[in-house]
């Protein structure tokens, strides 16, 4: 198999990167109008500002009058008798031991066999081993008719088109027909030509006088609670803790149970394990 030759005709000349826009609009310097900033026409005041307010000039500070705090006396009637901690349960149930029947374990009534277990099964007694009959495996022959000739890699395209150069018209770029102005841009607007600056008329600002009627008397911080309750210390009875009325036993606890006293340990009876014989016949 052979690769066909390349029939493309490559041009040895360099590409021309020049366009009509680059050739027509080359670098040049355009005259630009100098910006003129208008003057500030606002009338700024030059005097110092007065930071004083009516509140700052009227209230000069000081301390108001306040009555002395008085705590009211305690008027609760507290009992003097000691609390009784005795309940119905404590007075009725004085402790003791209830009646309980003695625990008795029932005897084992299961009839346990004494004969040895027979581990022989139907499969072991019926099938004693051996080798079954099997036919010999034979692989079938391959019935595919495989060709022995070499493959032909020639195609219709390769045999029909043997290369060459087709006809092509020469590319021609159309000329630019835009009529571009050459005069400088005029940055003058109607607002700039009409309004040339100046100062408008404004009325003088006048602050209205304060018409609030503010009281001149000192504030009275006295309340009904302060005038009524003048303080003091109330009476309180001494706390008394009631005595413990529980009858606590002094004897040591007996940790002996029926199981511990009845079953004293030992070894139970168990039949001896017997392994069955192997009945498989090995060939």
From TrEMBL:
Please provide, in alphabetical order, the Gene Ontology terms of the cellular component aspect for this entry: cytoskeleton
**GO molecular-function annotation terms?**
microtubule binding
The UniProt regions of compositional bias labelled Basic and acidic residues, in chain numbering, are 8-19, 71-81, 105-115, 139-149, 173-183, 207-217, 241-251
Spans of biased composition, class Gly residues?
A: 49-64
Name the segments for region: Disordered.
1-283
According to the UniProt entry, which residue ranges have a biased composition of type Polar residues?
A: 20-34, 82-94, 116-128, 150-162, 184-196, 218-230, 252-264
Cited InterPro entries: SAXO1/2 (IPR033336)
Q: Which domain of life is it from?
A: Eukaryota
Enumerate the PANTHER family for this protein. STABILIZER OF AXONEMAL MICROTUBULES 2, TRANSLATION INITIATION FACTOR IF-2
The entry assigns this protein to a family as follows: Belongs to the FAM154 family.
What is the official name of this protein in its record?
A: Uncharacterized protein
Q: Which organism is it from?
A: Caenorhabditis brenneri (Nematode worm)
């Amino acid at each position: 198999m052979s690769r066909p030759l390349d029939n493309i005709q490559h041009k040895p000349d360099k590409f021309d990167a020049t366009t009509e826009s680059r050739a027509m609009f080359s670098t040049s310097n355009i005259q630009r109008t100098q910006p003129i900033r208008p003057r500030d026409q606002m009338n700024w005041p030059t005097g110092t500002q007065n930071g004083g307010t009516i509140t700052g000039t009227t209230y000069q500070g000081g301390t108001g009058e306040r009555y002395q705090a008085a705590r009211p006396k305690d008027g609760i009637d507290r009992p003097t008798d000691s609390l009784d901690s005795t309940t119905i349960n404590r007075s009725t149930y004085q402790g003791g031991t209830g009646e309980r029947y003695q625990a008795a374990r029932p005897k084992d009534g299961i009839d346990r066999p004494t004969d040895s277990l027979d581990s022989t099964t139907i499969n072991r007694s019926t099938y004693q081993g051996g080798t079954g009959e099997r036919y010999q495996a034979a692989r079938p022959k391959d019935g595919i008719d495989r060709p022995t000739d070499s493959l032909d890699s020639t195609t219709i395209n390769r045999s029909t088109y043997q290369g060459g150069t087709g006809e092509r018209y020469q590319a021609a770029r159309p000329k630019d027909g835009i009529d571009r102005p050459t005069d400088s841009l005029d940055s003058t607007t109607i607002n700039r030509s009409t309004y040339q600056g100046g100062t408008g008329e404004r009325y003088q600002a006048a602050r209205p006088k304060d018409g609030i009627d503010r009281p001149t008397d000192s504030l009275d911080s006295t309340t009904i609670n302060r005038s009524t309750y003048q303080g003091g210390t109330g009476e309180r009875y001494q706390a008394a803790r009631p005595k413990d009325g529980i009858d606590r036993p002094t004897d040591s606890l007996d940790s002996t149970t029926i199981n511990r006293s009845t079953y004293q340990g030992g070894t139970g009876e168990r039949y001896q394990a017997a392994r069955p014989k192997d009945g498989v016949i090995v060939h």
